[in-house]
Amino acid sequence: MRVAAIGALVEFLLASPAYAAPDARSVLRAAASMMGRLGGPSNTEAIGRIDAEGRSGDHEEVVRPRDGAFRISDRYTLFTEGEGFDGRQHWKLDRSGATHLLNAPFTMATTITEDWVKRRGYLQPGSARLETRTREQIGDRWATVLTMRPRGGNAVRLAFDEATHLLVRAVWDRPFSTITETYGDYRSVGGFKMPFKVQIEESGDRAEISIERYSRLKPSSIAFARPRPPADTAISGPATLPMDALSFAVVPATINGHQYDFILDTGGHNIITPSVADALGLTGEGKGSSGGSGEGRVATSDTRISELRLGSATMTDQHFTILDLDGAVKRKGKPDIAGILGLEVFERMTVTIDEPHNRLTIEPSRPGRVCEGERIPLLFDDDQPAVRGTIDGIPAQIGIDVGNGGIPIVLWRWAEAHKVADRYSNGIKGEGHGVGGSNVTFRTPHHDIAIGKITLRDVDVNDATSNAGYFSSRSDSMNLGHALLQKYVVRFDYAQGNMCVMVPKS
Known about the structure:
By secondary structure, the protein is mainly β. Helices cover 13% and strands 48% of the residues. The chain has a 13-stranded antiparallel sheet. Strands 16-17-22-18-21-20 form a 6-stranded mixed β-barrel. A 6-stranded antiparallel sheet has the order 15-24-23-34-35-25. A hairpin with a 2-residue loop joins strand 16 and strand 17. The chain starts with a helix and ends with a strand. 40% of the residues are buried.
């Protein structure tokens, strides 16, 4: 009882007028006076070191204050990764050295917020709408937390130290996770207060950035442009491979001269299992983690493979993730599947999946190629493509996941947002399994799914209830794979930003 009474007293004190958070305008005025508003024609560059996933590397970030364009690059021993925004397009550089655009609506709104924070837009009066104002203790210090939404952007929660008036934390949501950036060790640089320590947390992973110096650079748009594709792939022309599509789409490939079968997956990366890595004498570097359809995380490490051959394509010096795929690789009467071929393959060539005829065709991307069916623009929040469509007549963003060998999966946030959750959750209870563990689903019949002019009628769907992982997405409404592929031929052309859905020829 005494503990409960003390707790109630603390809550009363925090809610009383004496403990009210300072007025938002005065907080931002004090922050502007202390930190300084970034501006002018010059770009701001930060150079330092990053420690993440058990490895250290070089960190560089350049921001163009006039419009928030930015470029982030983290260079490690085995790979470089990063992202950038040129003022119009947001691109992501993955660990293989290739890029793709981040152009889905939720992420485009997040981009507006992210660049607004980087250029200190919150210090510009009238640049955002204040949604909430609270007071919070961070460590041993009090901070005023302002939830603000810049024009066209998503909300971000900014915490300002009440004693120093400095921004000490920014928190915003991404489709499948929440980003928390913590700022410290502020020092004076050219009339501004700049943080020399930055900590970034996402899904349990943490990166520590130590800035060594800040510089002002001459104006240039080239620094923010999307990098050129890596010159690591040779493909002589179209090639057709056999494909086993009884469960997953499984195709043969050769790595470092050894032939294996791989799952083809638009929802995955290039992955090998620990047993295959051991057989090839490959060692993993780093201690990362990966999520998937389950709520948990799975340990990962990184390696490089000298050569990957897929049909007529040869890819050299390729990044692979080492990850235990558990039961997904087991096959009765056949050798275990070696892993996954995912994003990195689709970024480098056009991939046509003809599940009705159990074949896969790969070829170079050709601008302006005719689609003998329905051409549908691709959207990316991260690494898996999505398309605009409808579910039972309701607008939806539908994730296209070749690795989904089952029925379509409705995601609960979308169902709740459109007040139709009961329609999908009132079904037969089941359990699914994937990276990150199991997930509970509910199966209901008689649903219609439309993408472009293509409609899948009277299909069963599963309702996913996971509170973490992909099935908790804030942007995708459904995960669609086998239900589409078993009826149509689908050509993915990431370079041109579309997929072509065609009726199979007899």
